């Protein structure tokens, strides 16, 4: 919802994570929660990085563990943000990386 309020379109959300893995859609930006119901967020980050090496991956988590951010970055995330997200910082990071009119493409 945060992204849509800023006029960004073509935003996809997947639950369960397998739905993403079966999707043919490539995105410029991925926001991955570390804690997911069906797969480790770290494993999903690794998969995304292999499939789409030039995409921006932002890992997010509400866990209070100083090892999560460095681990996520080590496994392929470009950045890590704690939840609750600082909305302005989150949007600024995404807007810096948008190079085209749309976030996702088929």
What attributes does this structure have?
single chain, two-stranded antiparallel sheet, alpha/beta, globular, 106 residues, 5 helices, three-stranded parallel sheet
- Determine the mean pLDDT: 84
Helix-strand topology string: HHEEHEHEHE
Could you tell me the strand content as a percent range? Answer: 15-25%
Distance between the termini: 21 Å
The major sheet is characterized as: 3 strands, parallel
Question: How does this model look, in words?
Answer:
The protein has 106 residues and is an alpha/beta fold. Helix content is 36%, strand content 18%. The protein has 5 helices and 5 strands. The strands form 2 sheets. It has a 3-stranded parallel beta sheet, sandwiched between helices. Strands 1-5 form a two-stranded antiparallel ribbon. Helix 3 links the parallel strand 2 and strand 3.
Task: Compile the SSE list and pairings.
Elements: H1 2-5, H2 17-21, E1 26-27, E2 29-33, H3 41-51, E3 56-61, H4 68-74, E4 79-82, H5 87-97, E5 104-105
Would you kindly provide a brief summary of this structure?
By secondary structure, the protein is of the alpha/beta class. The chain has helices at residues 2-5, 17-21, 41-51, 68-74, 87-97; strands at residues 26-27, 29-33, 56-61, 79-82, 104-105. It has 5 helices and 5 strands, in the order ααββαβαβαβ.
